[in-house]
Every structure is written in structure tokens, then in C-alpha cells.
Amino acid sequence: MTEGPADDGLAPHGGAAGAEGLTRPHKRASRAVVQTHAEREQTFDVDDDFAVPQLAPEVDRLGARLDSPQPTSLRATYYDTEDLRLLRSGLTLRRRTGGDDEGWHLKVPTGRSGERSELRLPIDSAPAGGNIPEELAELLVGELRGAHVAPILTLQTNRVATRVLGDGGAPLLEIADDRVVAERHPDGELRTWRELEIEELAESGELARALGRALLAFGARPGTPSKVARAMRGVQRAAERDEQTKDLLARRLRALLGDIARNDLGVRRGAPDSLHDLRVAVRRTRSALRTFSALFDRERARTVRDELKWFGTVAGAARDQEVLAARARHDLDEIPREERLGPVRAELAGRLDASAAAAREKLLEAMQGERYRDLLAALDRFSAAPPYRPGASGRNATALRRCVNKEVRRTKRLVSGARRAPADRRDVAFHEARKTAKRVRYGAETLQPLHPHEAKRLAKRFAAVQELLGERHDAVVAHELLRQEGARAGVRPGENGYTYGMLAERERRAVEDADERFARVWRRAQRKSVRRFLKKRGH
Predict the structure, then answer these.
(1) Is domain 1-23+249-395 annotated with CATH 3.30.70.20?
(2) Cβ proximity of 115 and 131 under 8 Å
């Protein structure tokens, strides 16, 4: 990384992360295995004198039975940053003793309503001195971005748990009656409450919903899914208020950093689509710095943008290999079986899958390095206090619109040049036009809080341009790959170039089809009514 000005905080590659770096996790000779548990819960608030209803008839009606109540005592310490980065991202990190699942737990939203994944490590995965396990610290690099982690809350829960058993005595649900004492750190404020939880231990069909309805009928109220969110509610709201700003550009950069952090965790966990979404978040961030570059200190913005380009290239290589492999499989499925001569599928898929695996390994290696950590920390500082030029700010609506309009004009020039370019230069020219169309789209997304309808329409029209040129570019890349594979196939035992030629021809036709459709898509994007709002003056 190019070292920036001292106040930018960008350390040379491999240097120290800085005084605010995460408390280094405890190093051990062998690493524990992270176990994942899908958590599906319903939570209900009840008064202290609430009488838990007799649920046995409802349980019997649904073909199950109640086990004997089991009392237990649970003590959990929750960890977060001073500004509650984990909690505000929907994550909770705790160390809990007591019960049959004691240990370190990281709870991650799955995207499905009311469901979270719980990643578990043994209780001795980290020393008791406040450090967190290395395995969890590595997963949380994107979310923490070098911030210090410390205890924020201790929960003492006295629980009476009753399991609902199915055929053969297999546990289906657990009904927990919890009396909670919460102590916040460092102020020592205490809160107490009582709640009921229904947690699904296995697929229970209608049973969990039926029991939930029964509790509501007896006077229970829908509760807060997370105990820590309930205990920290006032503090969390204050932290969220601190994040609010009238600076539109700063808000956009904070939101994009949140997207990077969320998908960083997804990539490390191997979550579906997370690599694609991480790449898009990095592109959007870099695009914002480029589109609105006239407002920023040039050197500081360039330094961060260059590092985003480096990481985007690494992430893009991994994603491109995934796309190529999927595209090749789709093309093979589309041609008749009798036209697939030789071991084309095995050979092509094997090589592409190996390339994708190697590219992904390089990405994960980069995400473990100091250069990436420095980039995240720099983005954190940049978005918290954007380094504007004298007189510039992210609150000047006219200046923001002017920056986006400049990208519209640049895209128009590049498209015009690409259409006139000779055949041997047309692909590169259209690819450059695609990049600027993408900046228009992302810039319009930034303007949506100011112009909800107009900016949304502009973003939609230029998204169509970007996506069509993206299809074209993917076809160009795939055609060249298949042409080269076909040329080599003739010298490999058991192969010939016939099927590769058919596949390459499909991609050539895909390029021609994209060119034919482009005129209509571009005409819709260029209508004056679509971009008239960009020339407004004032707010």
C-alpha cells in the first residue's frame, strides 16, 4: 500500500495495526473447530407473577409430550466495541457458563426472519483475561476493523427449561422460563425482567407456532429476540444517533462499509452469494470515491481508492472464476448431448474449478493480511470524517448532482466512441463504458435520499446499461477462453476441438445479441427527462 499522510493512518504493508488494534487473540498450538447451530426462537415478555399455562393439552393434540422441568443457572458475558459495532450489525458475541451448551457463542443473522446461526467454541478457547478466541476474532475482522473489544454486559439467568418430546423421545422444542438480571459495563446499571422462550431443537412443523399462539392467548406479549439488545437498548440508540449525520456522502460511505463488513464475515464462513456481494460493496465504495473525487482531498482519497482497487482485483479474480465455471456448465447443458465429444465437461469444469479454488484461496489469504486490515481501518476513519477539500462537503446537493452528471457525460462519450471503434478495439471500449455507467448507477443511488423517484429511475436505467454490457463482457471473456481451450484440445489425448468450437460460437452469438439489444437500452438511459434533475441548483 502506498503510505498516505500521517493523519490518514495508513501503515506500510505488514506494519503494526496501531494502538487501537483488536486485543490480540490467545495463540494456541491447535485451533478449536467452530460448530454451527441454527437458532430459531420465539420470545415473549411476561410479568413477574405470570403463571405459565398448562400447555400439555396443546402439546398432546399435536402428537408430542412434555418432559420434566429442569432448573439451571446461566451466566453470560457479552463482548463488543465501545460504539457497539457488533450489536448494531445484529451480531452478539458471548462467553457463557452453565447449561449443556456452555462456551463461546457468536450469533449471526441468516437473513430469514427470526433465525440466526450460532457459532460455538469450547469454554476454554480463550483465556479469562478478556481476550476472545482467535477463530472468532478472525471471523470478525471486517466488523471490528481494528477496534478494541471488551465486556459490555453480564447476564445472570435463572432458567426453568421444559422440553417437548416427539416420537421416540426425541426433543423437538424447549420452553424456557427465564428470570434475568443484567449488569451493564462499565456503568454497573442493573435491569431485571422475566421472559419465556420457545426454541426449536428440530423440525417441529406447526408445533412451535401453536404453542406461541397459546402463550399469547394466556396474556404473554411478543418480546425482544435478543436479551443483550434489550439490556443495551438505551446505549445502542445513543450509539446509533451518533452515527446519524446530515452529510449524505458520509452516510453513504458508512453504509457501504457496513456492506463490506457483513459480506467479509459471509465470505469467511462460506455463505452463498457473499463473495459476489463483497465484490459489489467494494466496487460501490471505490465508485463513490471516484465519482465524488472533486469533493475530497485528492491524495487521501486516491490512497484509499488505490487500496480498494487492489482488494477489488483479488476479490474480482475469485468471483470471475466462479462466473466462468458456472457459465461453462450452463453452455454445456444447452448443447445436445450428441454434440459433446470427448471428456469436455470433466476437463473444462475441472480446470475452471481448480482456478476458482486457487483464486478463492488467494482472496482468503489477502483477507488475513495486514494490508487488508489497514484498508478496513482507513475506510473506517475516512467514512467517519471524510477529508473534504476546503469549502466542500457531502451536504451540498448541487455539488453532488454535478459529480453524477459529469459521469453521465463521460459515459455518453465512451459509448459513442465504442460504437465507432474498430472491431479489434470495440470490446475494450465497451468495457470502459460499462465502468462509467456503473458509476452513474451507484452515484444515483447516493442521491436517492434527496431525489427518491428521479434518482431511482436514473439508477435503474443505467443499471440496465451496465448489466447488458456486463453480459457482453462475460461473453467476450468466455469466448476467448473457449477458443484457447479448443486450440489446445487437438493435442490432448482423447479430446478434439469440436465441442469447444460449438461453445465458443454460442458466446460469439451472445456478444452479437448484446450489441443488438444495446441501442434500445442506451436510448432509454439517454432521455433528457431521466437526468434533468441533475442540473438543478440548490437543495
Answers:
(1) no
(2) no
